[in-house]
């Protein structure tokens, strides 16, 4: 599918190594998920998804516990879940997911990030239809053949299973996320290298060196925004 998930995670980890930004974003996401239902991952599937992903980014337990306790405390801090769509250099397409307690501020900041870095905002639906919601799960210690066999035995249909840098990456429909994890856990998997609910572009766009440099600046500007949780795009940065 063209994505190098382990490489993407390494780049993000390197970028965030000297900041608390990634932890702050997870703290907000965990709080919002816990507020949606019971603050217990066993009965709150949205919270369970976030916590599984947080583990793969080594989010400290203290950050997780603080966010859940905040939700339990009945804090009336409310966040809106927003999605923005837009275009970057050379026809690149971008989706931005945000959690915000100030919609006007977030919209203004996202728009400014686009316009100052060679992009422009699109209307709702202008980009998202060219992306597919996808569960991505990565494991080590098993071959792709082993993973395929155990998923077939569990009657789980994966979209794709690929080997990548010593790990097996599974792509599947979002509603198969928990079933895949449970099947793997029952077959000895204790940790996941990737546990993402993401948006994958149906086709990828390769940029020339100058356009890619501008694109990187745009993505950095968007990811640096406090309210932005996830940024998805259709650019092949491994090409």
UniProtKB/TrEMBL annotation:
It holds the Pfam family TACO1_YebC_N. This is Probable transcriptional regulatory protein EV213_11426. InterPro entries: Integrase-like_N (IPR017856), TACO1_YebC-like_2nd/3rd_dom (IPR048300), TACO1_YebC_N (IPR049083), Transcrip_reg_TACO1-like (IPR002876), Transcrip_reg_TACO1-like_dom3 (IPR026564), Transcrip_reg_TACO1_YeeN (IPR026562), YebC-like (IPR029072). NCBIfam families: PRK00110.1, PRK12378.1, YebC/PmpR family DNA-binding transcriptional regulator. Keywords: Cytoplasm, DNA-binding, Transcription, Transcription regulation. Residues 80-235 form the TACO1/YebC-like second and third domain. One of its GO terms (biological process) is regulation of DNA-templated transcription. It is found in: Cytoplasm. GO terms for cellular component: cytosol. Belongs to the TACO1 family. YeeN subfamily. GO terms for molecular function: DNA binding. Gene3D superfamilies: 1.10.10.200, 3.30.70.980. It comes from Aureibacillus halotolerans. Residues 3-74 form the TACO1/YebC-like N-terminal domain.
